[in-house]
Specification:
12 helices, 323 residues, mainly alpha, globular
């Protein structure tokens, strides 16, 4: 989601620069209108494609051909990316929304084996895409250190370490860390507050409660420190329409290198210092339902069949009416 919002904002401001909009009121008006247009349009495409996939798998069954079932699901989700790009919207945001929809809704219309294969295939594609991004990061870092040909053309042919600015690097790194803290801690606190509420609209969609515990302060600190800044930033910096492109590109390369090496390599140590358990298997939905013990009453807009501890925290009884 962070990368998606960064790309949407980048495209919005890039278009404003290319249109040579200099008046502040026009600039902000164009930025907000472009942002909401891209966000709403891309989200709508993701929902439409996801709904189409849900209806398709509701009525079309592949029987024993689960490989084809998984492939059709993956490439149907990719269709949302292509449609959004055709309309000059954000393909990444559309694919993200479509993926969320497919994981929550469409997933229920797949066979058990097709569901497992689609998850495995999606993880493989995600791993390969991540590998390509970090290969790009490494190549750009080497070009940054030794000097390389400017990838997008322009008046100058090379960028090198002389374009690097320590003050700009430190200021950008500090702002990134502060911005991530402002995103992690308030949202985590909101989720903890929401988890204590009795009403839960998700039960209307027959979606089980997947939250098993609160996010502690240690969890929040780990989430904040684990935010690596990957090659999406480098890809955007390579195409910046500004005379300061080289300074921003070299600084971006150094931030990606610094956060990957420092925060990435220190993750096991930080997990140990914060006493956060690792290698723990997530309980299944059936195990969560059985964990409550006793009976549960299905009530509209209320959490049902939650663990016994959660029921005690909410102060609601756990009984089920006989059908």
């Amino acid at each position: 989601m962070n990368d998606t919002m960064a790309i949407v904002l980048y495209r919005t401001f890039k278009h404003a620069v290319e249109e040579n909009i200099t008046d502040p009121s026009d600039l902000w008006g164009h930025a907000f209108s472009g942002f909401f247009k891209t966000s709403i349009g891309s989200t709508a495409i993701g929902v439409v494609v996801g709904t189409s996939a849900t209806l398709y798998f509701r009525f079309v069954k592949y029987n024993n051909n689960t490989d084809m079932e998984a492939l059709v699901l993956i490439f149907t989700a990719y269709t949302s990316f292509l449609l959004a790009e055709v309309f000059h919207l954000s393909g990444i945001l559309a694919a993200l929304v479509c993926g969320i929809w497919c994981a929550v809704v469409t997933d229920r219309n797949l066979s058990d084996l097709g569901d497992d294969k689609s998850h495995t295939l999606a993880k493989q594609f995600a791993g390969m895409a991540e590998m390509v991004l970090f290969v790009l990061s490494g190549m750009m870092t080497v070009l940054f250190i030794y000097g390389g040909r400017e990838p997008t053309g322009g008046g100058r042919e090379h960028f090198n370490i002389e374009d690097f600015s320590w003050p700009f690097f430190l200021c950008t790194l500090g702002l990134i860390l502060v911005a991530r803290a402002l995103a992690i801690f308030p949202l985590a606190a909101f989720l903890n507050w929401y988890d204590t509420a009795e009403d839960d609209i998700w039960v209307c969609f027959n979606i089980p409660d997947r939250r098993t515990r609160y996010l502690s302060a240690r969890d929040m600190i780990m989430m904040w420190a684990a935010g690596l800044r990957g090659a999406i930033a480098i890809g955007l910096a390579m195409d910046l329409p500004t005379p300061h492109r080289y300074t921003m590109l070299t600084t971006t390369c150094m931030i990606v290198l610094f956060t990957t090496l420092v925060f990435g390599s220190s993750t096991p140590l930080l997990l140990k210092l914060l006493n956060i358990p690792t290698g723990v298997e997530e309980p299944t939905d059936d195990e969560r339902l059985d964990d409550g013990g006793g009976e549960c009453e299905i009530r509209p807009f209320a959490r049902s069949c939650a663990p016994e501890q959660a029921q005690r925290q909410r102060g609601t009884p756990c009984t089920r009416n006989a059908a």
